[in-house]
Amino acid sequence: MTYQAQTPIHTDIWAVNADLPTLRNKLLDLFCQLAYQEGDFVLSSGQPSSYYINGKQVTLHPQGALAIGRILLSLLPPDTQAVAGLTLGADPIVSAVSVVSAYEHRLIPALIIRKEAKGHGTKAYIEGPNLPAGANIVVLEDVVTTGQSAMKAVERLRAADYTANQVISLVDRQQGGAEYYKSVGLNFQAVFTIEDIQKRYRELRN
Length: 206
Prior knowledge:
two-stranded antiparallel ribbon; 8 strands; alpha/beta; Rossmann fold
């Protein structure tokens, strides 16, 4: 993979040329340094939590976005025709994968799925290129807790006559999401578990 870019600051832009194992380790560190917080929080699911992962601190980071695009592209099945996700958390993720796919000569369009139908124009739930009926689409997510957010994306895609049988998340909080996806027949994969992040977080603090 070769990216040609100029920057006035000479830094270690590891996301460009690192191999995938190194890339994963660097991305894990970025999640620990920027996204992971401990305290008292209430999740979007309504559940209380002693920690919070603000995925957008990484997905909107230049090196984080590139690393995510490269890693997730490598995990997509060969027959993937597009990636999609529920706005807002998945927007930078699907965009990163789509951009990286062009550099890798494997063009993967990105679709963004609205939580509510657009109130004007086509009144569509799904934004992005029109694909043939039955197109195989992988749903991407930043953090999975109960699995409901990505499931909404799956349901919207299926209602539009697309095939959606797989979910890939950057982080699995291990609070029932994986089990839920299995129960409804979806394949699920996560780049990191919460155990991975908490273990590395403590290592970095020592």
